[in-house]
């Protein structure tokens, strides 16, 4: 695979993130880029790593494990699972990932906590919130997040870091900002000094500016970093 374009595209996305962060009057470095590497080969991840990228997002467990084995020499990688959690994959998720975005089920939370290896720190998790009310979308309804948060905080193998959402696409920036603002407001209501929920995982290529203006701390970007997925 030709990976020569990846450093340039990576820098372009970082420039967009910096510009949006400055526009939001937020400090430089307030937003982390998660490079969504699902269906990208290990060579593409290696090229992005060489360009300075450290956080990578995967959605398919076996594919991710294969790439992790190929990239075991890259010791500074943070692996983020951004796919839908399946109960029969929680042991692998607990053992091989640093972050889970999209936790929305207390049964999954209990399994992840129990199966987190004792030698590793608690698994960082973001609770997925369904702000659209669409039943086909993952996540818990806003009114149920507090109860899920309270239960997850009792699990020693997990560390609840914040909230995540995948809103419906919108063309206009004002429309894009609305669900992101709702997630930030929900976080502000639920946060406490001992559980600040300092992570808001929201925003992708088409709406990262709107997400950053509303407080995103990490954005998930795939094609704009790597190009088209070669395995699609």
Automatic annotation (TrEMBL):
Pfam families: Ala_racemase_N (PF01168). Residues 12-230 form the Alanine racemase N-terminal domain. It comes from the Bacteria. Keywords: Pyridoxal phosphate. Its cofactor is pyridoxal 5'-phosphate. InterPro entries: Ala_racemase_N, PLP-binding_barrel, PyrdxlP_homeostasis. GO terms for molecular function: pyridoxal phosphate binding. The modification N6-(pyridoxal phosphate)lysine is found at residue 38. Gene3D superfamilies: Alanine racemase. Belongs to the pyridoxal phosphate-binding protein YggS/PROSC family. Pyridoxal 5'-phosphate (PLP)-binding protein, which is involved in PLP homeostasis. This is Pyridoxal phosphate homeostasis protein. It comes from Allochromatium warmingii. The lineage of its organism: Bacteria, Pseudomonadati, Pseudomonadota, Gammaproteobacteria, Chromatiales.
């Amino acid at each position: 695979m030709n990976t020569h374009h990846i450093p340039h595209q990576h820098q372009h996305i970082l420039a967009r993130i910096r510009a949006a962060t400055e526009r939001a009057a937020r400090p430089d470095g307030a937003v982390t880029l998660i490079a969504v590497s699902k269906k990208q080969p290990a060579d593409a991840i290696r090229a992005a790593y060489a360009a300075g990228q450290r956080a990578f997002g995967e959605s398919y467990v076996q594919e991710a494990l294969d790439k992790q084995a190929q990239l075991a020499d890259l010791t500074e990688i943070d692996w983020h699972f951004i796919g839908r959690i399946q109960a029969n994959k929680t042991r692998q998720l607990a053992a091989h990932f640093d972050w889970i975005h999209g936790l929305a089920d207390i049964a999954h939370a209990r399994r992840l906590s129990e199966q987190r290896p004792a030698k590793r720190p608690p698994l960082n998790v973001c609770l997925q919130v369904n702000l659209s009310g669409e039943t086909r979308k993952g996540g818990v309804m806003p009114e149920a997040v507090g109860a899920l948060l309270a239960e997850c905080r009792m699990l020693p193998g997990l560390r609840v870091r914040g909230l995540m959402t995948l809103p419906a696409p919108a063309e206009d920036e004002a429309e894009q900002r609305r669900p992101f603002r709702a997630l930030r407001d929900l976080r502000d209501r639920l946060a406490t000094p001992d559980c600040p929920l300092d992570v808001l995982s929201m925003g992708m290529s088409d709406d990262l500016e709107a997400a950053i203006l509303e407080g995103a701390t990490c954005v998930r970007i795939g094609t704009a970093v790597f190009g088209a997925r070669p395995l699609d």
